[in-house]
Design a protein that fits this description.
Layout (H helix, E strand, L loop, with lengths): L2 E3 L15 H9 L5 E6 L2 H15 L6 E2 L4 H6 L3 H14 L4 E6 L1 H6 L3 H7 L4 E4 L8 H16 L7 E9 L5 H12 L4 E4 L25 H5 L4 E7 L4 H10 L4 E5 L5 H15 L6 H22 L2 E6 L1 H13 L3 E7 L13 E4 L2 H6 L6 E4 L3 H8 L2 E4 L17 H24 L1
Parallel strand pairs: 1-12, 2-3, 2-4, 4-5, 6-7, 6-8, 8-9, 10-11, 10-13, 11-12, 13-14
Helix pairs in contact: 1-7, 7-10, 12-16
């Protein structure tokens, strides 16, 4: 069990890497086909989010704002701004869904977006995502739950060949695709909610779209209630699974804290074998498992002598730290953006909720950093090794096609970290 420091002695974050709930909500809505995210708040909040994801994915990101100012928030409450924003959206494009989510300003005022949503005669899902609570992980999960509660139809029918995948926010588009393909290899039809694997995967379309292009359709969301099996990945997604099971209690639910490393992948494989009655996994699955076993041997020497700092969201930390600990990597410090009960189970010497200023205070305890682009300046200043993971990564292209999950992705992660560790030691010696 890790030693978890849940409270920092500092009254504020000095060098934060945490992202906001509205950003998580935006990303989740972008996983729905032809959905227009509508951020209820100031123009700056929306512009920041748009630029942030555009730079990370190297793709245009469609998002609209209600453009609430402090004066409008006090005098009007923002209701009029929402209604007018929906009208303006529909004048330019025809979305299949509008995703209304809040920011700190209207939440502080206490806007009733549920009441406003009832007055709008257009397909709309609303969710409260104040940016003074939680982070990108909870914003994504709250939005997924809202999509389920407000769109999925209640049913008693059950299709045992249908699987609903509920992925956490830190899974990149290719990782979601790989998990879908892995489950489909056992003979299932798989639908992910949200699904970035076909919307922000970096494919070249015929032209720049004004709406999200790809992802799960609204009709598919409505019909998720008849799935025989629900698979949630990441502890942040357990509430979404519970909401889905409310639509049909006959569904079976299998939860995975993460899908990184040999043990976690074996657990998924065993469950799918039990569901199907197969005697053995598909040959490609067996082959990749053997490759991961070999990768564990090949990378053990380099990683076993490397002290690691991992920075990220709780679900992301759980997966990366598990994969590294299996190969003998020493995660001496893991820093989470927000608190979570699962932090106590992360395989690291010390786990804390903090920022990059905290990371700097413990600089003598690690050799390499695994974290988002905000860690780059810290690594250069402290002369540490660096492997970039998480949001944002503005210095590299191809983020959407990085894969660290399942047997296949586990090989790539171990090799990348091991090679970076060897390069760091060579640099230190020269």
């Amino acid at each position: 069990m890790a030693e978890v420091k849940r409270k920092s002695s500092k009254p504020l974050q000095v060098n934060p890497f945490k992202l906001s709930q509205p950003m998580g909500a935006t990303l989740a809505f972008l996983g729905v086909d032809r959905c227009m995210p509508l951020m209820h708040g100031g123009q700056g909040c929306t512009s920041f989010t748009k630029v942030y994801f555009t730079r990370h994915f190297s793709e245009p990101v469609a998002i609209q704002t209600s453009a609430v100012t402090d004066a409008i928030a006090v005098l009007d409450g923002g209701d009029y701004s929402i209604v007018e924003s929906v009208k303006n959206i529909c004048k330019k494009v025809t979305p299949n869904l509008i995703g209304l989510h809040t920011t700190g300003l209207p939440e502080t005022k206490g806007d009733d977006i549920r009441g406003v949503a009832k007055k709008i005669e257009f397909p709309l899902v609303w969710v409260n995502t104040p940016d003074y609570e939680g982070g990108i992980e909870s914003g994504w999960a709250l939005t997924c739950r809202a999509l389920i509660e407000q769109l999925v139809e209640t049913t008693e029918d059950l299709d045992d060949n249908k699987v609903v995948l509920l992925p956490h926010v830190s899974l990149q588009p290719l990782e979601v695709e790989k998990i879908k393909e892995f489950i489909a290899a056992f003979g299932f039809e798989v639908l992910a909610l949200p699904d970035l694997s076909t919307s922000l995967d970096g494919h070249l379309g015929e032209k720049q779209a004004a709406l999200s292009s790809g992802g799960i359709t609204v009709d598919e969301i409505r019909s998720l209630g008849d799935a025989g099996l629900v698979i949630s990945v990441g502890d942040s997604m357990t509430g979404c699974a519970e909401a889905l099971l409310q639509k049909n209690p006959s569904m079976r639910h299998h939860h995975l804290t993460h899908l990184q490393g040999l043990v976690a992948c074996d657990a998924l494989c065993e469950r799918l074998l039990a569901e199907t009655g197969f005697n053995s996994p598909p040959l490609t699955v067996v082959r990749w498992r053997q490759r991961l076993q070999d990768a564990l041997l090949d990378s053990h020497f380099s990683l076993g002598q490397t002290r690691l700092l991992v920075v990220g969201e709780p679900d992301q930390l759980a997966g990366i730290c598990a994969a590294l600990s299996e190969v003998g990597g020493r995660v001496t410090l893991a820093i989470s953006s927000v608190d979570s009960p699962q932090l106590a189970n992360i395989p690291a010497h010390q786990v804390m909720v903090g920022d990059l200023d905290d990371a700097e205070q413990f600089a003598d305890q690690y050799d390499m950093i695994i974290g988002n682009g905000h860690c780059e300046a810290l690594a250069q200043r402290l002369h540490k090794g660096l492997v970039l993971r998480g949001f944002p990564n503005w210095e590299q292209v191809g983020n959407q096609l990085k894969n660290d999950v399942l047997y296949e992705g586990g090989c790539f992660l171990l090799f990348e970290v091991a090679n970076a560790a060897s390069a760091w030691r060579h640099h230190q010696a020269s």
